[in-house]
Structure formats: structure tokens, C-alpha cells
Amino acid sequence: MKKLFKCSVCGFVYEGDDAPDYCPKCEAPKEKFAQLDEEAANKIYASDRTNDIHMELIQLSMRIVELCEEGIKINLDPPCVSAFTKAKN
Ligand SMILES: [Zn+2]
After folding, report:
1. Distance CA 73, CA 32 (A)
2. Separation of CA 44 and ligand 1 centre (Å)
3. Could you give the C-alpha distances from 43 to 4, 30, 31, 37, 64, in angstroms and in order?
4. How far away, in angstroms, is 62 Cα from ligand 1 center?
5. Is 1 a residue whose pLDDT tops 80?
6. Ligand 1 centre from 49 Cα, in Å?
7. In this predicted structure, what is the pLDDT of residue 48?
8. 29 CA to middle of ligand 1, Å?
9. 51 CA distance to ligand 1 centroid (A)?
10. Is the separation of the CB atoms in 4 and 15 below 8 Å?
11. What percent of the chain has pLDDT over 70?
12. Is pLDDT of 57 > 90?
């Protein structure tokens, strides 16, 4: 498993076997980086995963709205339109 290093100047987190020579975000030198302990690293990974889940949910909900709008536009009969409208909201 790779290690995580955090820039003490800007908070940028770098993943790798060793800290970078310079921070890609604020250009602070390598000495400004500290390796995160396992607990802190796991928290970062968990937050990455929840960010991914968030993004996927947003994309899915946008797709649901698209499908509902298509169904509403087709306007086959009131129960259908009502179901699509409910789902959209
Ligand atoms: Zn930095």
C-alpha cells in the first residue's frame, strides 16, 4: 500500500512511496511534508470513497430526472405522467 504525505503549508495530500521534492500545489519543499499515520490515511481513503459515492448518486439522480422528463413529455396517460412527476420530484 502506498503512503500518504501531507503538505504542512497548504494541506495538499500526496500519495506515493516518498514525499515529492516540491508540493505540486504550493511548491513548498519536501521537508514541509509529513507522512500521515494509518488512521489519518484510512480517513482520507474513506472520504475519497464517499466523494465517489456522492458523485455517482448525483449522476444517477440527474439520469432519473432525464428519464422522468422524457416520460412526462410522452404524456401517455395521467397515471403515467403522475408517476413520472412524483419520481422527478
Ligand atoms: Zn503545499
Report:
1. 58
2. 17
3. 11, 23, 23, 10, 31
4. 35
5. no
6. 23
7. 92
8. 8
9. 22
10. yes
11. 99
12. yes
